[in-house]
Each structure stands twice: as structure tokens, then as C-alpha cells.
Design brief:
Blueprint (H helix, E strand, L loop, with lengths): L8 H10 L6 H9 L19 H14 L8
């Protein structure tokens, strides 16, 4: 079944730049959505193994404090 969707010119242009030769827009959307042959991020929920979660969390927070935000134009 085919569905019609509306895209802004900007969104269409962005998708068109990502599209590979001989790839349909449907194939492109499935590829960038990670659904074709990939796993959903939700499949990994709750799979942390190990007792070092506090240490990892603290390291993440330290890294975030040291990081600098940058603004980029697309």
C-alpha cells in the first residue's frame, strides 16, 4: 500500500541529498530510520550488566561538564 506524505521543501531537499543512486525514497526512509535490518534502541533497554553503573554515570557527568557546545549551520 502506498501512502502520500507532505514534506517541506527543506525536508525534501535533505532527503534527496541522502538518497543513494537507484534507491527509492521508501528505501531511504527505512535505511535512515534504522528499521531495515537494524535493531530498535528499545531492544537494548534494561540490558546493563555489571555493578559499575554509578562510576559510569559520574564519568558521563564529568565529561558533560567539560564539553563545549558548538552551533553549526546546516
Amino acid at each position: 500500500m502506498t501512502k502520500v506524505i507532505s514534506l517541506s521543501e527543506r525536508a525534501y531537499g535533505t532527503l534527496k541529498k541522502l538518497k543513494r543512486p537507484n534507491e527509492s525514497f521508501s528505501e531511504l526512509v527505512l535505511r535512515i530510520a534504522g528499521q531495515e535490518g537494524g535493531k530498535s534502541i528499545l531492544e537494548f533497554a534494561g540490558t546493563w550488566k555489571g555493578g559499575d553503573i554509578e562510576e559510569v554515570f559520574l564519568q558521563i557527568m564529568k565529561d558533560r561538564e567539560r564539553s563545549v557546545s558548538r552551533r553549526i549551520e546546516m
